[in-house]
Hints:
Elements: E1 3-7, E2 10-12, E3 18-25, E4 32-39, E5 45-51, E6 58-60, E7 68-73, E8 78-83, E9 92-100, E10 116-117, E11 121-125
Parallel strand pairs: 2-11
Antiparallel strand pairs: 1-3, 3-8, 4-5, 4-9, 5-6, 7-8, 9-10, 9-11
Amino acid sequence: QVQLVESGGGLVQPGGSLRLSCTSSGFNLDNYTVAWFRQAPGKERDGVSCISTNGLRTYYRPSVEGRATISRDKSKNTVYLQMNNLKPGDTAVYYCAADFDTVPSRCQVLPGNMDYWGKGTLVTVSS
Length: 127
């Protein structure tokens, strides 16, 4: 079965950290740009970060720049999103998505380009 599975969400206090993981099954992530999106209650889904197939290009939305780090481990077929200094405004369901891409140093957070989506993991930042 072809799917993406997110993990690592949970309840964390403001200022805390989480590491989200995105693992594929049924296909190899090597040739896929991987992106993270999030959707807060009552809001639209927003792009958070992405990483190119070769891992050399990354993008972060301005509100998480400096607090988030995206990385990929091809040996584990997994992409990570490390989030530090979390704020209540980071509360959302986080989704990973994969875009088959033949350009190794490109990544874009365009929902319409994504070939596969995970079901999401909930991150709640609250004291």
